[in-house]
Amino acid sequence: xxxxxxxxxIPPLASDAEAEAFVEGADLTRYDLxxxxxxxxxxxxxxxxxxxxxPQPLLEAVKTKARAxxxxxxxxxxxxMEEDVSRS
Length: 88
Hints:
By secondary structure, the chain is mainly alpha-helical. It has 2 domains: about 1-35, no CATH class; about 40-88, Arc Repressor Mutant. Helices cover about 45% and strands about 0% of the residues. It has helices at about 15-25, 55-70, 75-85. The chain is elongated, with a radius of gyration of 17 Å.
């Protein structure tokens, strides 16, 4: 097993397509994967809807963060909510 110091950091990936291309072509045993968190996949049907008013600058900031992760802003908001309720 390689030491963590011998491993390369994962390069920044701006989209799902970039991530898929990286994983397809890279030898992942050479990269430090310790920064990844387990991901919860949703199989439950989404039946509830949420409508809320927020300040425009807050919405723009959320959209910017979501874009940096390469995901839609609504998925990013749901992810934040899921992370918060799972901590309690």
